[in-house]
Amino acid sequence: MNEPPRQAVILLSGGLDSTTTLAIARHAGFALHAMTFRYGQRHAREVEAARRIGQHLGVVHHRVCDIDLRQFGGSALTDDLEVPTARAVDEIGHGIPVTYVPARNTIFLSYALAWAETLGTGDIFLGVNAVDYSGYPDCRPEYIAAFQAMANLATKGAVEHTCPVTIHTPLIHWTKAQIIRRGLELDVDYSLTTSCYAPQEDSLACGRCDACLLRLRGFAENHVTDPIRYATSSP
């Protein structure tokens, strides 16, 4: 008799990294439970993209959770602050930019931990990256290790030694080019994804924010055209 697939909770933002992570978890044989947040970000297109991706990749359940980080502000993604544009790609990752959302991954992982515990699993997937990233402190290996250690002190299954928690971060040491290459190997449809911090009219990606620049470089290094649409002024 075949064993039922292991359950996993995957944090799915609708972006390139989280979509690739979802595909990796699927390839590993996990039953996929996707969690997306409507957290007060400026652009609802992220949530719409996550819904499309979840349907395309066959998630078992997809939860969209509503929280409001706008009440705290402090980020260009949730507040009336200007998104940095046209930075040199090699400059990205030096210092913590204004697009960092305070405590976002801690909050998201806490929700994922609660859902995983009710599902009877300790497997949580997160698409953070510490190589081609934007200087976010909650994307570092040290942070992930600390959260996993905390989770194993805080949950019933871990304390009773029946369900230890593992935070899977398969992309954490990969460049954007390596992430895209693996996604293409897994037949990820990147036209469904969105990465831009400041999308233009008709949902065109700006091509100038940090997320767009890193994404464009990743596709260029794979000699593949990015399938999403960019504003005409983009590189």
Question: What does this entry look like structurally?
Answer:
The chain is α/β, with parallel strands linked by helices and 235 residues long. The protein is built from seven helices and five strands. The chain has helices at residues 16-27, 45-57, 104-119, 141-154, 156-159, 176-185, 210-221; strands at residues 7-11, 31-38, 61-66, 123-125, 166-168. It has a five-stranded parallel beta sheet, sandwiched between helices. The longest helix is centred in the middle third of the chain and has 16 residues, at 104-119. It is globular and about 55 Å long. 42% of the residues are buried. The model has no long low-confidence stretch (mean pLDDT 92).
Quick overview of this protein structure:
34% of the residues lie in helices and 11% in strands. The protein is of the alpha/beta class. It has one domain (7-195): 3-Layer(aba) Sandwich (Rossmann fold), CATH 3.40.50.620.
Biggest sheet details: 5 strands, parallel
Average pLDDT figure? 92
Fraction in helix:
25-40%
The SSE string, one letter per element, is EHEHEHEHHEHH
- Termini separation comes to 54 Å
Total beta strand runs: 5
Global morphology:
globular
CATH class: Alpha Beta
The poorly predicted ranges are none
- CATH fold field value: Rossmann fold
> Number of folding domains?
1
